[in-house]
Amino acid sequence: MKRFVSIQTKDFSIEQETNQLRATTPEVGGIATFTGLVSDLNREQKIESLFLEHYPGMTEKQLEQIIDQAQLRWNLLGVRVIHRVGLLHPQDQIVFVGVSSRHRKECFEACQFIMDYLKTQATIWKKESSQEQSQWLEARESDQAAEQKWQQ
Fold first, then answer.
1. Which residues pair with 6 in a beta bridge?
2. CA quadruple 148, 52, 20, 112: dihedral, nearest 10
């Protein structure tokens, strides 16, 4: 299985990343992707920006471990994970998860699994700023519940 993990400040092209997954092997039968954007609202407050920090080296290793877990569950041909850091604004692309496999069910499930685990397991810290305040965000209960469903 080919894998590509990036923590970066620069934006990414969904088309380029999808084409890279498509080109990993002629056995690819399907590709599932998820692209997350910076939201403009959180808890009824208008968001002006989001600042993301990570633990270099450790964050990439954690993402590799999440991909390893996905590979144990599904027969994957390729995985691409990109997470941006630095200062971002509403509607900026923040995360990309792409999975290629022979079959669509494996693609969909593995893509969701990787995203669910990324939200709770990767050492990425987010500071959200609105006109009223700036605050560091903690993992949401809904993110933890999404991860727990895979443990059952």
1. 82
2. 20
CA atoms within 13 A on the CB side of 141: 0
Residue 45 CB neighbours (<10 A): 15
Reported as a single tens digit per residue, the pLDDT across 6-28 is: 999 999 999 999 999 999 889 99
Of the chain, the end-to-end C-alpha distance in Å amounts to 26
Report d(CA 121, CA 144) in Å as an integer.
10
User: What is the value of pTM for the model shown?
Assistant: 0.92
CA 126 from chain centre, in angstroms, equals 14
- Do residues 42 and 128 make contact, with C-beta atoms less than 8 angstroms apart? yes
83: enclosing H helix or E strand? strand 76-84
